[in-house]
Q: What sequence folds into this?
């Protein structure tokens, strides 16, 4: 036995919480910070690869660009009827609009909308963004209802958030199906440089997986709300914690939308 | 095992127990939340409109990135309630993101060089 004076302090000797929040919420914040670094690396890496290629408007001859403006008109051109000889993608390859030597303009790649063959650039992804923003609002309304200990409201808004999450996942599945159906794979890309398709699948896939895990977490917490777990615990902070995660997923989507669909 | 039957005040800061302590929750109302929703929606619509109105190029890209950062800031400060948190937490979350800004500057410079190499 040693004779050293051993202080009998408990494991935690820091007094009060320095951040004025519970340890669970603090850890969620730090996890999200580390996740933000992961997504930043992916998106900045994408940006670097993107800018190492010339853009379509720098590389495609002016007369071809004029031809595209006249023949591929948003809300008017039917991509199935106007390009029935070779299909839209192949026609663009033959014109040199899609080529390995330059980055494609996103409005030429993501121009589909369910139920129509019209050239509708950015419309579907805007709808996806709208769904995710809306589900973020219902999430934060659930958190707010939890702060007032209103179980019924928390239940309703959590359920709406879960529905929004499934809608977003469904949209993403459709988007991937279209992109793959046109020939884009991890290592092949009919629209331009291979890295474009590879990074698209990597980053939207990684984000989609976050959405999926967010929906699973939301369902678990929703079931706990139904069972009255947080009513007994005296607070709805778990709703707030999964809410943080869910909003982070929305936040990442803001940048995925900006980098993949706008730039 | 004597403490097992003791009831713990989960909000008591003087008798702080990190395993259960949680600050008292209070609502800040829903007005700011809906305002932020309309703002995010408006900024997204502006994004799409600018995509078609502005000529492709660096100034359009910079506009999109600025709008993206504004949207992100509103999500973090209002939806994630960071604006109501203690200053120490705000700084712990926001300051490390400076590293990302540095990463962007470094890699864009690098990308310029790849372009130059005709990679």
A:
């Amino acid at each position: 036995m040693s004779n050293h004076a051993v202080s009998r302090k408990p494991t935690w000797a820091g007094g009060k919480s320095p951040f004025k929040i519970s340890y669970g919420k603090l850890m969620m914040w730090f996890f999200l910070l580390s996740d933000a670094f992961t997504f930043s690396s992916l998106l900045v890496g994408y940006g670097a690869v993107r800018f190492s290629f010339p853009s379509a408007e720098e590389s495609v001859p002016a007369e071809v660009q004029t031809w595209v403006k006249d023949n591929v008109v948003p809300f008017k051109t039917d991509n199935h009827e106007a390009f029935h000889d070779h299909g839209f993608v192949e026609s663009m390859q033959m014109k040199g609009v899609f080529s390995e030597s330059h980055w494609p303009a996103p409005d030429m790649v993501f121009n589909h909308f369910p139920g129509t063959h019209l050239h509708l650039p950015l419309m579907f992804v805007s709808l996806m963004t709208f769904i995710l923003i809306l589900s973020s609002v219902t999430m934060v309304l659930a958190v707010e209802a939890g702060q007032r200990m209103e179980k019924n409201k928390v239940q309703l808004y959590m359920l709406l958030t879960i529905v929004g999450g499934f809608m977003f996942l469904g949209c993403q599945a459709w988007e991937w199906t279209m992109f793959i159906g046109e020939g884009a794979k991890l290592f092949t890309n009919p629209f331009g440089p291979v890295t474009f398709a590879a990074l698209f699948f990597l980053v939207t896939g990684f984000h989609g997986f976050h959405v999926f895990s967010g929906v699973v977490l939301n369902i678990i917490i929703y079931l706990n709300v139904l069972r009255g777990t947080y009513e007994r615990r005296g607070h709805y902070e778990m709703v707030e914690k999964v809410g943080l995660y869910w909003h982070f997923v929305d936040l990442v989507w803001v940048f995925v939308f900006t980098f993949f669909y706008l730039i | 095992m004597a403490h097992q039957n003791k009831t713990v005040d989960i909000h008591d800061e003087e008798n702080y127990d990190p395993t259960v302590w949680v600050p008292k929750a209070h609502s800040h109302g829903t007005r700011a939340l809906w305002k932020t929703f309309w703002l995010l929606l408006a900024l997204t619509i502006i994004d799409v409109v600018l995509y078609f109105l502005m000529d492709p190029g660096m100034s359009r890209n910079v506009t999109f990135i600025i709008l993206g950062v504004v949207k992100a800031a509103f999500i973090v400060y209002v939806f994630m309630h960071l604006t109501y948190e203690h200053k120490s937490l705000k700084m712990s979350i926001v300051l490390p993101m400076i590293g990302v800004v540095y990463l962007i500057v470094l890699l864009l410079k690098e990308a310029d060089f790849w372009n130059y190499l005709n990679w």
